[in-house]
Amino acid sequence: MTISSCIRVEIDLSFPAYLKWISVDYRGMMRILIIEDEVRMSELLRKGLYESGYTVMTAADGETGLEIALAHEFNAIVLDIGLPRRDGYSVAKSLRQRKSATPLLMLTARDAEDDIIRGLELGADDYMTKPFSFPELVARLQSITRPHRDETTIKIETGDLVVDPVHHSVTRGNASIELTRTEFALLGRLARSAGGCVSRQALAACIWGSDPSVTPGALDVLVSGLRRKVDAPFEHKLIGTVRGSGYLLKLQAATRSAAQ
Ligand code: CA
Q: What is the C-alpha to C-alpha distance for residues 54 and 120, in angstroms, rounded to an integer?
C-alpha cells in the first residue's frame, strides 16, 4: 500500500511536547502505543511500525504512557519495563486494575524467566527480550491483536478444571483463573486435545500463526506462566510435558465434554 492510496490526516492535538501523534488514519489501521524511554529504540519502533501500516503514538515514561493508554483506544501497547516515573510492571498492573483489556506486549532487556513471568502475571499478553527482530515483533503484535477464535464452543471439563470458550473463562474447583489471551489460546488448544500430546508446532501455530520468526523459547515461557496459574496452586498438576514433542493436558476422573 502506498501512502498516496490512504487518507492520512496530520493533526495537531496540542499534546505536550513529550507526546507524538504521528497521524490519524481513517482506514481503520491498527493503533499502537509505544511506551519506551530509550530514544533510539522508540524511534526505531515508531518508524518501523508506521512503515508497516500502523498508526503510532509514543510516550517516554510510564506515568505519561498510562495516562495516554487510559485516555485513548489502542489495538495494542508496546511496553518497556525499565521506565522513568513508573515502570512497565506498574503500568501493566494499573491498566488491568482499571479493567483495560488492551493487549500488552512487554519489551525487556531482562531475559530472566521470573521477570518475564511477572510481566505475564500482571496482565501482559506477550513479551520480547531485547535485542529482538522487527519481523518477530510484528508477528507477536499481530497475534495479540487477532481475536483467538476457538475452533469449538464446547465447554471442556477435566477433573476440577473447566475451560469455557464461550464465556472465555477458566475455573479450577471454586477458583476463577484469570488468563491472558495467549494463555487462554494455549490452554484451549491443549483442552481440545485433552489426554493427547499437542506438538510444539501445533501450539505455536495456534498462538502465533505459522510465522517462523517467533523463537521456540516463547512457547516454553508461555507454558511456564500458564502452569503458575493453572497448576501451581493445586495439588494435581494437569499440564504435562512430552519431552521432545510437545505438551498435553492430562485427563482426570470425571472428565467430560458438554455441549453448550
Ligand atoms: Ca527502558
A: 24
